[in-house]
UniProtKB/TrEMBL annotation:
Positions of ATP binding: 728
Family that this chain belongs to: Belongs to the class-I aminoacyl-tRNA synthetase family.
GO biological process terms, semicolon-separated: leucyl-tRNA aminoacylation
Gene assigned in the entry: leuS
Name of this protein: Leucine--tRNA ligase
GO terms, molecular function: aminoacyl-tRNA deacylase activity; ATP binding; leucine-tRNA ligase activity
Reactions it catalyzes: tRNA(Leu) + L-leucine + ATP = L-leucyl-tRNA(Leu) + AMP + diphosphate
Ranges of residues in domain Aminoacyl-tRNA synthetase class Ia: 12-156, 722-751
EC number per UniProt: 6.1.1.4
Length: 952
RNA sequence: GCUGAAGUGGUGGAAUUGGUAGACACGCUGGACUUAAAAUCCAGUGGGCAGUAAUGUCCGUACGGGUUCAAGUCCCGUCUUCAGUACCA
């Protein structure tokens, strides 16, 4: 037994880790804690490709490193197992999503006869140090019991704007009983009317509940939602990209529906502020800042002449209030009908009709066309009392601010364009600025003019004074506006968490905690009902018996003791917004995680995942954590202290080039001027030299059976290559299982890291694997220099050179891991092994620490070598080697000698030489004299220990 | 348009504070071993020019300037690519 039999070694240690529970974390330990988390996967039927484990490998290296550094490491894994693909598959095949999900995770054969490896087996093959004893699946009732519980907590809470915290709804009821809602600073719907304590006490129970619903952090309300007819469900803002659904690219329309919403907007400011204290990439923070979209300014109310109504607007530039020459309302604005004069009615109606037909997408794509119509009505300027014409225009969005703007054409380009198009005057309120060609949007350094009491003031002072005067007049006040909208929380789907909600007289009632979970009912079909109700409308046993506290048959509904249950389910992000807490205590049946576990593990120290969740998962998780914090359930205020976003691994697609209109294929280098059509060929049919296995290709598809091939001279057929996203449809998917089979998991792990910087997108190229693989073989050989390549380690201490190699490797690898620069450590290991091989080093005092150094990257081979070194315990928690600088101390330096900044030759000189001595030695060198060729240098720069530069 | 990241050999990439550009690999070329292939090992490999060769020499980090004894690295401007975002008042 001498060769590097990676298959045997890897299977052996994976079994060992599993049976010894090597990576199980304990919830109490003398060691400091460290929590390393991956974004958990959605277990799709397609399985893993080599792009998926990239982040997991990086986090695994870090987790293993931290164990070597003496930390109690929590490194769990689980599945985000509710979601659309399983449901779509269920609709197509009739299989229960729970069954297909289980097969996708655990492996097996599905009802279609497809063999599925299963995520768990695929992950296990790569040798991750996950603590699987804490696994969670969001679709397990034991898990979603707590998702339902958190929903109830949100329902039972309101947001106090004075303390900027969520509080128990009971405290709000007490306030209402004593003071009504006249004094309380609470986040609520704008439709809430003022009431006194007496009025509150006189309200019916239903009325009270109706009012409270407008204050709760999750609430049921008729809102305008994004309805996707193709998916048959509503979507949240972050699930829509460019006006179409993120999944499938289907059209999305606006529709009024009664839906559950999350009052995330209450947390806008705290979500913004919280970004300051966390270590995330600037780009992701910026994405969140943009999404929250804070803008500071003022609301100004414009009185409409002869109507007795006011139009509130939001503006960031109250300093330009004297530049207002018109107002624009969104076409959907609720006052439009009321304000439009008889003369303008026809035109306004036609315009509204036309804009409502334009899809969201058209409106966005077509920014340049300026459209609008005059309503015939006039508002009054709050200061000058001048009449201001009121227009409608679709550049004003109903969903932002108040859906109306005060137009200042001299200071806003869109207003300027609108005014120019419709020949509306453009009064100039800036001193010495030309606005004949474009609006003047700069704030700094601009002085206000033609503006009564604001004349001569700069932006900041004018802003403050304008707000002050508006407030004095009662026509406006300072206001901060956020773009962030409340998140719709209902989905008309089957495969999601059911709400723990039933309805009494149309009012939602929460089911008590003791009766959770409310399990998904069985249905025949996973489609909406004929009446357009969500799939749960098909369930026969979906009613709540409030006496028996049980889900019972719909036949029993009497609306006295048995009531209908909610038919919607929760969105995909519900379960993923808190899963990181469940790992801390995943089996607890009494609480979502015990106080002890929460206090010990606190939050995630390192989170690794893709950046595509910037406005979804990462924002919702922060919101839920802040909420749980406010209500005293957790001590932390942010879920993820540090985050790294791994880049995508791209596929290298292979194309066979077919001559247009024929069944003849041309090898890539033989293409001349034929018009050719490149077709994707499966990358598994192509070897690393870009040669196609022609026979396999013929058999791949019926249509290629009789294809002709114009080959190279040597009879091979070359494909052309292109880098694209890795995807099944492009036939460029590389399966990690095959790599593990052929080269081993350690090779896969190191190669994925070797590809390039973790955060960068980079193409996969299977050919490069052999470099890393032969490195591992060389590493193996270093320990097997005995007869017949037997294991042979000497007890004699390593040479000075070997110690130097070892310690510079320790230093570099430690720095690299801490900087998440894993690609450079792989080359450092290669250099170390090359050097030690050249030195013929086989000393225990070098090879032992070397095995520990490499174990985070290539844990299987490290364990095997460690046991061969005579150790009986796993290498996993052995202390990381300590860097000793003394081994790197040099007595001399090979100085680069440059002339005018260009290196010409090098010269070995002792490091303790003085500047003058170095200069003298260099000048005395024959090459120096040769290069100078008799000239006298103007200057000689000597940087001891670095460089010598001769100028002249 | 705005925001963020990035442009280095045939390819992936290295150069952490300005100090020997191209580490480490892949690929390619030549050689050793072999009946042969695979595997393994050795040597070479940024480009141009000169030379049998050792070597010499010039050019080179997207482009154009600048600072400096010295710039892939710092400053100013331009271009390109990728990602996110978009009529946000």
């Amino acid at each position: 037994m001498s060769k590097y039999y990676f298959n045997e070694i890897e299977a052996k240690w994976q079994k060992y880790w599993d049976s010894h529970q090597t990576f199980a974390a304990t919830n109490n330990s003398e060691k400091p804690k460290y929590y390393v988390l991956d974004m958990f996967p959605y277990p799709s039927g397609a399985g893993l490709h080599v792009g998926h484990p990239l982040g997991y490998i990086a986090s695994d290296i870090y987790a293993r490193y931290k164990r070597h550094k003496g930390f109690n490491v929590l490194h769990p894994q689980g599945y985000d197992s509710f979601g659309l693909p399983a449901e779509q598959y269920a609709i197509q095949t009739g299989q229960h999503p729970a069954d297909t999900t289980r097969v996708n995770i655990e492996g097996g054969v599905d009802k279609q006869g497809n063999t599925i490896a299963g995520y768990r087996k695929q992950l296990d093959k790569i040798g991750f140090s996950f603590d699987w004893s804490r696994e969670v699946r969001t679709s397990n009732p034991a898990y979603y019991k707590w998702t339902q519980w958190i929903f109830i907590q949100l329902f039972e809470s309101w947001f106090n704007n004075e303390t900027l915290k969520a509080e128990d709804i009971k405290t709000l009821v007490t306030i209402f009983e004593n003071y009504g809602n006249t004094t309380v600073q609470a986040v609520c719907d704008e439709t809430v009317k003022v009431f006194t304590a007496e009025m509150w006490q006189a309200f019916s129970e239903t009325k009270k509940q109706e009012i409270l619903l407008k204050y709760r952090l999750t609430y049921l309300a008729e809102t305008e939602v994004n309805w996707c007819p193709a998916l048959g469900t509503v979507l949240a803002n972050d699930e829509i990209v460019n006006g179409v659904s993120e999944r499938g690219g289907h059209t999305v329309v606006r529709k009024k529906m009664t839906q559950w919403s999350m009052r995330i907007s209450a947390y806008a400011e705290r979500l913004l502020q919280g970004l300051e204290g966390i270590d995330w990439s600037e780009s992701i923070k910026e994405t969140q800042r943009n999404w929250i979209g804070k803008s500071v300014g003022a609301t100004v109310s414009f009185e409409v002449k002869d109507h007795g109504v006011k139009i509130p607007v939001f503006t960031t530039r109250p300093d330009t209030i004297f530049g207002v020459s018109f107002m624009t309302l969104a076409p959907e604005h609720e006052l439009v009908d009321q304000l439009t004069t008889a003369d303008q009615k026809a035109e306004v109606e036609a315009y509204r009709e036309a804009t409502s037909k334009r899809s969201e997408r058209e409106r966005m794509a077509d920014v340049k066309t300026i459209t609008g119509v005059f309503t015939g009505a006039y508002a009054e300027h709050p200061f000058s009392k001048e009449p201001i014409p009121i227009w409608i225009g679709d550049y004003v969005l109903a969903g932002y601010g108040t859906g109306a703007v005060m137009a200042v054409p001299c200071g806003d380009q869109r207003d300027w364009d609108f005014a120019t198009k419709f020949k509306i005057p453009i009064p100039n309120v800036f001193e010495g600025v030309d606005i004949s060609e474009a609006a003047h949007t700069d704030k700094e350094g601009t002085v206000i003019a033609n503006s009564d009491f604001l004349n001569g003031l700069k932006y900041k002072k004018a802003l403050k004074l304008a707000i002050y005067e508006l407030e004095k007049l009662g026509a406006g006040k300072g206001k901060t506006n956020y773009r962030l909208r409340d998140a719709v929380f209902s989905r008309q789907r089957y495969w999601g968490e059911p709400f723990p909600v039933y309805y009494v007289d149309g009012m939602p009632q929460m089911i008590a905690k003791e009766h959770l979970p409310i399990r998904l009912p069985e249905v025949e079909k996973y489609l909406p009902t004929e009446e357009g109700e969500p799939p749960l409308g098909r369930a026969d046993v979906w009613a709540w018996d409030s006496n028996a506290n049980a889900v019972v048959s719909n036949d029993l509904i009497d609306n006295k003791t048995v009531f209908p249950l909610e038919l919607n389910t929760m969105p995909g992000w519900a379960g993923s917004s808190w899963y990181f807490f469940r790992y801390m205590d995943s089996k607890n049946e009494d609480v979502f995680a015990s106080k002890e576990a929460l206090d010990y593990w606190k939050n995630v120290d390192l989170y690794i995942g893709g950046s595509e969740h910037g406005t979804g998962h990462l924002l919702y998780s922060r919101f839920w954590v802040k909420f749980l914090h406010d209500r005293g359930f957790v001590t932390v205020d942010e879920p993820f202290q540090k985050m790294i976003n791994q880049g995508m691994i791209l596929g290298t697609s292979a194309f066979v080039n077919r001559i247009e209109g024929t069944n003849t294929f041309v090898s890539a280098t033989k293409i001349t001027d034929q018009s050719i059509q490149p077709l994707h060929a499966d990358v598994s049919l192509v070897n690393t030299s870009d040669e196609l296995d022609v026979e396999a290709f013929r058999n791949w598809r019926e249509e290629f059976k009789n294809a002709e091939f114009i080959t190279e001279e040597d009879g091979t057929f070359k494909v052309s290559r292109e880098v694209e996203k890795m995807s099944k449809s492009k036939y460029n998917v590389v399966n990690p299982d095959e790599i593990c089979e052929q080269y081993g998991a350690d090779t896969l792990r190191m190669y994925e890291m070797f590809l390039g910087p973790l955060e960068q997108a980079k193409p996969w190229n299977t050919a490069g694997l052999t470099g890393v693989h032969s490195f591992l073989k060389k590493l193996w050989k270093l320990y097997h220099g005995g007869e017949n390549e037997s294991f042979n380690v000497s007890e004699e201490n390593g040479s000075k050179d070997a110690l130097k190699t070892l310690h510079k490797t320790i230093k570099k690898v430690q720095e690299d891991i801490e900087n998440f620069s894993f690609n450079t450590s792989v080359s450092t290991f290669m250099i170390a092994v090359n050097e030690l091989t050249a030195q013929k080093c086989n000393s225990r005092n070098i090879l032992e620490p070397l095995a520990v150094l490499i174990s985070p990257y290539a844990p299987h081979i490290a364990e095997e070598l460690w046991s061969k070194l005579g150790k009986t315990e796993s290498i996993a928690t052995v202390a990381f080697p300590v860097f000793e600088p003394k081994h790197l101390v040099e007595s001399s330096k090979n100085y680069p000698i440059s002339f005018n900044g260009k290196m010409k030759f090098t010269m070995e000189l002792p490091l303790d030489l003085s500047k003058d001595d170095i200069e003298a030695a260099v000048m005395a060198h024959e090459k120096t004299q040769q290069i100078l060729d008799g000239r006298t240098p103007k200057k000689v720069i000597v940087v001891p220990g670095k460089i010598v530069n001769i100028v002249g």
